[in-house]
Q: What sequence folds into this?
């Protein structure tokens, strides 16, 4: 896969964009401090770092979303301070954001024309241009397809084409591979190389080492808003780069955490066999969900999770995972099928009853469903069990904070104290708090966790999976929904693959089956 | 050493007094008052005379003081309801209608409920309870609409307000309802005066200082509402639903019950405010009974930004301003509308200043 097209000679070109000692603060928080960086024409420059390291802030400075508080930028030799994204675009800088900005109801051509239209829309001309770009970079697209009907990978192609049609000199991609299938990732990296080969500068933001090995000419590592390492021979320096990124020892890394980074020490870890294995805990039988338009989102989903077993649900996002977890949590009504926990029928029960039955839920969107950001940590840790701290309607805050402090220690939740505002915690600590709440339910017998490590740094990932494994060894049945195959391969016992709401197939969590799982995620049955 | 300490504690006290939360409202009021004085001068009225009339109307006599305090109680009750519902991220703008239906219910029970003979104060407590129930139903109706069909409570409480006020007109216009028997064509569209026993007892028993038991009742409710909001599971649920309804639902809090509780309690407080106005001061139900007090109470609740003490402060301010304004019109011929202008200026200045402070702190 390496070096798809010949790399430009090592001759050091004049930098296209140079940042010198750039600083960006939000209130008292320095998102970037004294970051210097130069981007040369013809190179793929990877920005590596964990969540919260300042990668997105850096992109947003370049693209004119934010203005630096200190330091300066030079673009093509002249001082550069874009007034906004429109200004940056005009000057030849294009960016693909982490979250797509497409109008779902409009066609590909219309989305490409959006913001570029002048008087009369020249759809045919635009379609011709699209075809040319498609040819040039290997980005096939039906110009008149509606965005809604496209897969996530195709939508991203539209975003990329939207940028390339402007003939940018600098092309920034902010974590573009997070939502893609393995095959789509390779294709995207290939496009990056082709774009760079034309003498454009490409900035690729990522936290996956495999991608760096595959495509990067140079790498800059950010940690805590500072440049902590740079390398012009990344494939030789991988270990040093990882150490710089996570400030720790690669060998000591938890395997599940390593899998997130795409390190190749991935091997399946057998957790301790649970005493109660073989006893059915969660039984989902023919679960079906149709949305208000009558579209089937989840189709006849049948799955049994035994006590002490971790079953992974793999799949590209938007293939029914959200509906599955929402129904299991009692937040959405199913249109068919039944859910049992042991002998208890949980079909159509309220969230409160489901919690009382012993089902812990770590929702995929912790901000929307998992917590109340405007409340304190203690209140969030006991959000579903506040009755235990209530006498005659009065809330005993002293007891609440005392108990919360105990849980904070047990789950290593770091905050100023139990009274700290939940939104002031880092993502990792928030997730640990949500997990603490769900995993310490008094009669927990089943844990359903959706994307539990999204947005977490390596240490937090290891902690989260440590607790999940521990719960499992106590005989808890665990259903783990994730779009990261590597993560599922290291943590789960068994994997089922969701595609367009159906189970495409299931197989043991064996790293050797990764390609088969990837194929199922793309809709090819075993 | 002690001198230094004293200096330090003085500096600390100064900082406390000068903190934005206290300083900004004071400056806003001062600014609005200044503009008011300029306006008075511009319409050609002697400023000292107008100011004297204003002060006379607020603190000038025991009667004026009592009238201001009674009025402030009404504003405060509506304001407490606003703050309580607002904790659940609900905006109750229906105070006016809730006062109206409270007034109707209180009048009906006081006049035709045969309660005059009841002992232990039941003669006035029962009409008050009727008003509370009427207000709670009026607020609860908006809650049910919201829970069942997602109707925005701002719209429903506002529209229910108009219905409440028109119900009141109907009640006092129709002899079949509460209008007093028509003896001549000049009989005013109003109810009979309620019996003495149903009128709220005065605190001092002295008619020259007619503060009724509504004032201590309001202070008691201030404590009750404050404790509910800060110490109880009810207050917690309101806050959780207000901040994140989805997470609250997941954690087992009933959204429907919480919304119904919040809006019907706010309505009950509005209804009680109506009862205080009728049983404590006006004694007869007339059209124009609610006289915009529901909206003044709403503004008091808005300005307080969630604080019960803030509601009390704003209610006192508005209560005294209204009294002073009325006297200013009678004595110095300054239109009462001027007081409304000043009140509006205070609101705009405060809101603007708070916005400015928030932006400045976030910088």
A:
């Amino acid at each position: 896969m390496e070096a798809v097209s010949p790399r430009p000679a090592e001759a050091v070109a004049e930098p296209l964009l140079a940042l010198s000692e750039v600083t960006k603060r939000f209130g008292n928080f320095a998102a970037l401090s004294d970051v210097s960086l130069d981007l040369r024409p013809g190179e793929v420059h990877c920005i590596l770092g964990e969540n919260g390291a300042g990668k997105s802030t850096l992109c947003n400075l370049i693209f004119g979303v934010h203005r630096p508080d200190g330091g300066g930028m030079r673009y093509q030799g002249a001082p550069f301070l874009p007034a906004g994204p429109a200004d940056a675009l005009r000057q030849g800088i294009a960016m693909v954001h982490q979250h797509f900005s497409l109008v779902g109801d409009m066609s590909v051509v219309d989305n490409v024309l959006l913001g570029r239209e002048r008087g009369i829309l020249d759809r045919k001309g635009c379609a011709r241009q699209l075809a040319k770009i498609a040819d040039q970079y290997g980005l096939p697209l039906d110009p008149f397809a509606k965005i809604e009907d496209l897969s996530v990978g195709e939508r991203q192609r539209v975003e990329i084409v939207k940028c390339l049609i402007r003939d940018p000199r600098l092309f920034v991609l902010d974590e573009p591979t997070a939502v893609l299938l393995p095959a789509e990732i390779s294709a995207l990296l290939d496009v990056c190389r082709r774009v760079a080969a034309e003498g454009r500068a490409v900035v690729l933001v990522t936290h996956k080492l495999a991608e760096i090995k595959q495509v990067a000419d140079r790498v800059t590592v950010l940690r805590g808003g500072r440049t902590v390492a740079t390398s012009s021979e990344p494939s030789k320096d991988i270990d040093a780069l990882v150490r710089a990124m996570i400030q720790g020892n690669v060998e000591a890394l938890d395997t599940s955490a390593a899998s997130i980074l795409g390190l190749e020490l991935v091997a399946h870890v057998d957790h301790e066999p649970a005493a109660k294995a073989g006893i059915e805990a969660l039984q989902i039988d023919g679960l079906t969900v149709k949305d208000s338009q009558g579209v089937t989102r989840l189709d006849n989903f049948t799955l049994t999770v035994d006590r002490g077993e971790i079953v992974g649900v793999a799949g590209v996002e938007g293939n029914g995972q959200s509906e599955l977890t929402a129904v299991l949590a009692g937040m959405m009504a199913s249109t068919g099928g039944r859910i049992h926990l042991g002998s208890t029928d949980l079909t159509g029960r309220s969230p409160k009853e489901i919690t009382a039955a012993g089902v812990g839920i770590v929702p995929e969107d912790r901000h929307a469903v998992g917590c109340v950001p405007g409340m304190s940590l203690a209140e969030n840790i006991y959000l579903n069990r506040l009755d235990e701290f209530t006498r005659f309607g009065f809330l005993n805050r002293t007891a609440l904070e005392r108990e919360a402090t105990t849980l904070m220690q047990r789950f290593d939740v770091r905050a100023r104290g139990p009274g700290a505002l939940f939104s002031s915690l880092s993502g990792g600590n928030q997730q640990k708090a949500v997990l603490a709440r769900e995993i310490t339910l008094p009669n927990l017998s089943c844990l359903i966790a959706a994307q539990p490590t999204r947005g977490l740094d390596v240490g937090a990932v290891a902690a989260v999976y440590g607790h999940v494994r521990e719960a499992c060894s106590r005989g808890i049945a665990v259903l783990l929904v994730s779009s990261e195959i590597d993560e599922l391969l290291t943590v789960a016992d068994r994997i089922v693959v969701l595609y367009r709401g159906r189970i495409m197939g299931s197989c043991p969590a064996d790293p050797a089956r990764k390609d088969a799982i990837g194929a199922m995620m793309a809709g090819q049955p075993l | 050493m002690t001198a230094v300490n004293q200096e330090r504690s003085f500096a600390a006290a100064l900082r406390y007094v000068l903190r934005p939360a206290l300083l900004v409202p004071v400056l806003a009021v001062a600014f609005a008052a200044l503009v008011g004085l300029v306006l008075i001068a511009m319409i050609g009225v002697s400023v000292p005379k107008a100011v004297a009339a204003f002060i006379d109307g607020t603190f000038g006599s025991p009667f004026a003081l009592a009238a201001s305090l009674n009025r402030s109680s009404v504003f405060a009750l509506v304001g407490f309801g606003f703050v309580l519902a607002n904790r659940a991220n609900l905006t109750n703008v229906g105070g006016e209608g809730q006062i109206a239906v409270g007034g109707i219910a209180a009048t009906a029970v006081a006049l035709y409920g045969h309660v005059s003979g009841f002992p232990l104060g039941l003669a006035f407590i029962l009409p008050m309870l009727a008003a509370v129930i009427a207000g709670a139903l009026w607020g609860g109706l908006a809650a049910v609409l919201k829970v069942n069909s997602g109707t925005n409570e701002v719209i429903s409480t506002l529209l229910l307000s108009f219905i409440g006020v028109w119900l009141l007109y109907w009640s006092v216009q129709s002899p079949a309802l509460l209008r007093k028997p028509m003896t001549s064509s000049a009989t005013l569209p109003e109810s009979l005066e309620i019996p003495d026993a149903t009128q709220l007892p005065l605190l001092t028993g002295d008619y020259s200082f007619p503060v009724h038991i509504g004032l201590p009742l309001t202070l008691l409710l201030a404590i009750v509402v404050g404790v509910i909001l800060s110490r109880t599971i009810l207050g917690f649920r309101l806050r959780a639903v207000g901040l994140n309804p989805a997470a609250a639902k997941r954690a087992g809090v009933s959204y429907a019950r919480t919304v119904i509780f919040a809006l019907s309690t706010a309505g009950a407080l509005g209804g009680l405010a109506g009862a205080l106005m009728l049983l404590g001061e006006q004694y007869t139900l007339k059209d124009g009974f609610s006289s915009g007090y529901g909206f003044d109470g709403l503004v008091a609740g808005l300005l307080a930004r969630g604080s019960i003490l803030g509601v009390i402060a704003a209610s006192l301010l508005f209560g005294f301003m209204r009294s002073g304004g009325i006297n200013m019109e009678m004595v110095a011929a300054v239109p009462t509308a001027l007081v409304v202008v000043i009140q509006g200026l205070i609101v705009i200045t405060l809101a603007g200043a708070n916005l400015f402070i928030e932006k400045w702190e976030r910088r």
Notes: Residues 122-149 of chain B form the longest helix (28 residues). The radius of gyration of chain B is 22 Å. The domain at 44-362 of chain B is CATH 1.10.3470 (ABC transporter involved in vitamin B12 uptake, BtuC).
